[in-house]
Amino acid sequence: MDALAGQVIVFTGGGAGIGRSVVSRFVAEGARVVAVDITDAVVDLAAEFGDAVVPVVADVSTWDGNRIAAQTALDRWGRIDVFVGNAGITDGACPLEEMAGDQLSAAFGELFGVNVLAPMLGVRACLDALVASSGSVILTGSFASTNAAGGGVLYTASKHAVHGLVRQLAYELAPDVRVNGIAPGVAPTRLRGTTSLGQSVSDAVLDGTEQALPLQEVAPVSAYDGVFTMLASRTESAAMTGSLVTVDSGLSIRGIAKPGGRVQADAVS
Ligand SMILES: NC(=O)c1ccc[n+]([C@@H]2O[C@H](COP(=O)([O-])OP(=O)(O)OC[C@H]3O[C@@H](n4cnc5c(N)ncnc54)[C@H](O)[C@@H]3O)[C@@H](O)[C@H]2O)c1
């Protein structure tokens, strides 16, 4: 368990869900992590992992939030090897026709601020240090990065934009910094909604999700740890840049008649 020995990682959205699980794995693999979150749930990580995790409570849709996170890593450990842009919010799968026209600009600004602007700000804040370390970037996309109906119009457009960011930044930063993404399908978390649409939090797993997946089960949040670790590793993914790795229990290859070829008929809802 030393795939990331000595690496310094700035990780957004580390307070809950997929991010919290990955931060735990990164520490187990020998990394030191600045874990950033808008909630103070990240503060517990320091109690759990001691000096290996420095929590930063900040809004990553702001320049200051990202600047402070990067500076914290540099002040504490003098380098940054990986930036992970993982913080995200949802639109609760709200269709365009259910949003009032005068709500849309605020909702767009809020959701794109977290899902698209934040990873851009984070990469910018860490950029000099990433170039100096020949480091890498990992962005959390989604099934919705390449498919419709993984969210509403705002979420889907934002996650398609994350795919664009992965590809464009991989181009712009080559050969010095590798840039890759991960596209989860459905993880058992409670994503924050878009407050300007009046949303609070919602379960990512809907009734019937399990039966719709070719692999017939909703994987735990820890299902993503291994791929994040591989992409953060200097050796295990040395030839990868510009890739969006799908980790979706087969959601993007499900069939029409039944979700998977060997799924029993009585399992299909
Ligand atoms: N849960 C799923 O089914 C699913 C599927 C595909 C992609 N994703 C993506 O995975 C990533 C992680 O989401 P999750 O499912 O673990 O949800 P989560 O809500 O458990 O984790 C997201 C974290 O981001 C933090 N965050 C939100 N806005 C922030 C901000 N402005 N500044 C700082 N931190 C902020 C939240 O407080 C939370 O701790 C997101 O990018 C999400 O879009 C999730």
List the helices and strands and how they pair.
Elements: E1 8-12, H1 17-28, E2 32-37, H2 43-49, E3 53-57, H3 63-77, E4 82-85, H4 101-133, E5 136-140, H5 153-173, E6 178-184, E7 190-192, E8 201-203, H6 209-212, H7 225-232, E9 244-247
Parallel strand pairs: 1-2, 1-4, 2-3, 4-5, 5-6, 6-9
Antiparallel strand pairs: 7-8
Helix pairs in contact: 1-7, 3-4, 4-5
The chain binds nicotinamide-adenine-dinucleotide.
Q: In the CATH hierarchy, what is the class?
A: Alpha Beta
Compressed to H and E, one letter per element, the order equals EHEHEHEHEHEEEHHE
Q: If helices are DSSP runs of H or I spanning 4 or more residues, what is the number of helices? A: 7
Please give the largest β-sheet: 7 strands, parallel
| Class inferred from helices and paired strands | alpha/beta
Associated small molecules = nicotinamide-adenine-dinucleotide
Tally of strands? 9
The low-confidence parts are none
Give the name of the CATH architecture: 3-Layer(aba) Sandwich
Shape: globular
Mean pLDDT: 96
**N/C terminus separation:** 41 Å
CATH domain topology: Rossmann fold
- How big is the Rg? 18 Å
Q: Report the CATH superfamily.
A: NAD(P)-binding Rossmann-like Domain
Strand percentage lies at 15-25%
Q: Helix content range of the residues, please?
A: 25-40%
Oligomer: single chain
